[in-house]
Structures are given as structure tokens and as C-alpha cells.
Amino acid sequence: MKLCIRQMKLDDLDEVLGIEQYSFPTPWTRTVYENDLKNNPRSRFFVALNESEDGELLGYIGNWVIEDECHVGTIASKREFRGRGIAEALLIHTARAALAEGVTYIILEVRENNFAAINLYRKLGFKQVGLRRRYYRDTGEDALLLTHHDLEGLASRDIPPAVARLKEKTVE
User: Fold this and answer.
1) Residue 54: its pLDDT value, please?
2) Rounded Cα–Cα distance for residues 136 and 1 (Å)
3) What is d(CA 48, CA 6) in angstroms, rounded to the nearest whole number?
4) Which of 37, 65, 118, 164 has a 20 to 30 A CA-CA distance from 154?
5) Which fold has domain 3-171?
6) For the chain, what are the domain ranges?
7) Which residues are CB-contacts of 99 (< 8 A; sequence separation ≥ 6)?
8) Residue of 20, 60, 88, 109 with catalytic role
């Protein structure tokens, strides 16, 4: 397999929304994605594709760059590829892209019970800087507020061993 990370396109939305449906209690709608892709100059949405399987979409990440901040709004990977480093590769790519734009830190919220995501973020060097009580209206869950200030360190990380065979190829 060969991993390709590139900007999300409108044509990707059927696959993105398929992953979105089983990944989140309240999935984003097509309209939300379309608005960001077409109308929001601050949005930076990327997809990870398996070039060896006719471009199968493996995961995605959506960010907004605001001044010196990159705010991760969404990230998910295809169920059968979870735990294989797709999300990690997308975060590394995001750090590289953010650095190129002069961003100094990444910020995100994560559900307090999403232990797989929390473990990944901590492994990559994200630190908890706050707690947003009842942030997720759909479930009433709190959100942990995490930041990463060493973008050079994150951007210089190797692609995870589980996807190293995918040979990351970045396409802008």
C-alpha cells in the first residue's frame, strides 16, 4: 500500500461522511463540510488515501488556521484501519502544513471518554490545558482541551511503523 495525504475535495465527501456516521454521536453534515471546503479560507481539510487500492479513503482531518493557531475540529479513520497510524500520519502532516503557514501551536478538544484518541494525542506530545464542562451537547460529556506547542518536533516525527509501509506521499 502507498499512503497519499492531500487536500480534501468535494468529491471525497461521500466517503468522508460514511466514516463520519459511525465515528461520532452527532456527525457533521455534508453542508458543514461543503461550507468549509468552498467558503472558509481558514479551513485546511486533508484526506489520507491508499493509492494501491484505487484511492480508497482511509481517514481525514479538518482544521482551521486562525492567526498563529491551528484548531483541529475533526479527525477520524476508517474503522478497519484504526490503530494503524492513519490518524497519527494525518496529525504529523497537519503539523508540517501548519508550520509552513507560521502557526505556533495546535489546539483541539477531545471527548473525555475517547481513550484511544487521548492516548494518541499524549503519545504525540499534546498537553491538557483545560476542561470544557458539558462541551458536547449531544451526550453532555466534558471535553479535554489539549495543545501542542512543539510543532517542529511533531512535524519531524517519522510516519508510524504501522503505516511506514504505506510510504507517505504528500500532494498539495
Assistant:
1) 77
2) 36
3) 7
4) 37
5) Aminopeptidase (3.40.630)
6) 3-171
7) 151, 152, 155
8) 109
**Residues 90-114, mean pLDDT to the nearest whole number:** 97
The pLDDT of residue 163: 64
Kindly state the cell numbers that stand for 85: 497510524
Q: Is 34 a catalytic residue?
A: no
Q: Which of 33, 60, 88, 121 is catalytic?
A: 121
Please report, for the chain, how many H helices and E strands are present, in that order. 6, 8
Residue linked to cell 467558503: 39
pLDDT digits 0-9 by tens, 118-160: 999 999 999 999 999 999 999 999 999 999 999 999 999 987 7
Q: Does residue 55 carry a pLDDT above 90?
A: no
Indicate if 109 belongs to the active site. yes
Instruction: Find the largest Cα–Cα distance for the chain.
Output: 43
DSSP symbols for 83-108: TTTHHHHHHHHHHHHHHHTT--EEEE
